[in-house]
Amino acid sequence: MSRAEQPQQVGTLHCLILPGWNNSGPTHWQGRWPVLHAEAARFTRVEQDDWHQPLRGDWMMRLDETLLAEVPLGAEPAVLVAHSLGCHLVAAWAAHSQLTGRVRAALLVAPPDLDGADAALTVPPQLHGWRRVVRQRLPFPALMLASDNDPYGTLVRSEGLAADWGADFASLGPAGHVNPDSGHGDWPEGWARFTHWLATLPATPPAV
């Protein structure tokens, strides 16, 4: 059996959960995975002070603080597990932080389209501070999973973001916004894709 076919071999996997705007609740896959897969990985949710009026700089600072607290020097780097606006947090944070060495990889699920042609009319006022989307290539491997009927962004726009960020890309088909409303609670298929992909990555040095 090839290494890519052995998702159970996740080692000391530490996942930092990055919810999007308005947080993700206990029935969301970001809430279910820490319950279902506690034996395979350690999970830490990055808790923001304000989920409803998200300030990009504040969210970036909280991710830095969490990495400093949760991923000590010499530890296995963490994996960012982001949904929706959390994907844009990963990109904005990675372009400015000095702590990217503490991240092994990122899972990016259902990023919303914040700077498309109609974004000025469709993006809620609370998110206007995020509309200058960071498109710099990520300094670590990433996998983007996107839907072809996401109400917050088209598959083409998501694929363009993945190309800019240097992320591997896969379509989930008609999966909505990949949340409880679209039937993605436990989401075992997502966990399987994620862990299979991680198993294909080369070993990483300790966090710096």
Enumerate the spans where pLDDT stays under 50 for 5 or more consecutive residues.
1-10
Structural class: alpha/beta
- What is the top-level CATH class? Alpha Beta
Walk across the major sheet and give the strand order. 2-1-3-4-5-6
Q: How large is the radius of gyration?
A: 16 Å
Note the run of SSEs as H and E: EHEHEHEHEHEH
Helix content: 25-40%
Annotated CATH architecture: 3-Layer(aba) Sandwich
CATH level-four homologous superfamily name? Alpha/Beta hydrolase fold, catalytic domain
Helix count, DSSP H or I runs of 4 or more residues: 6
> What's the main sheet like?
6 strands, parallel
Distance N terminus to C terminus? Answer: 33 Å
Strand content: 5-15%
Report what the structure shows.
By secondary structure, this protein is α/β, with parallel strands linked by helices. It is globular. Helix 2 (56-70) packs across helix 3 (85-94). The chain has a six-stranded parallel sheet, with helices on both faces. It has helices spanning 29-36, 56-70, 85-94, 119-122, 155-165, 188-199; strands spanning 14-18, 42-45, 78-83, 103-109, 142-146, 168-171. The protein starts with 13 loop residues before the first strand and ends in a 9-residue tail after the last helix. It has a single domain (3-199), classed as Alpha/Beta hydrolase fold, catalytic domain (Rossmann fold). The relative contact order is 0.18.
Chart the SSEs and their pairings.
Elements: E1 14-18, H1 29-36, E2 42-45, H2 56-70, E3 78-83, H3 85-94, E4 103-109, H4 119-122, E5 142-146, H5 155-165, E6 168-171, H6 188-199
Parallel strand pairs: 1-2, 1-3, 3-4, 4-5, 5-6
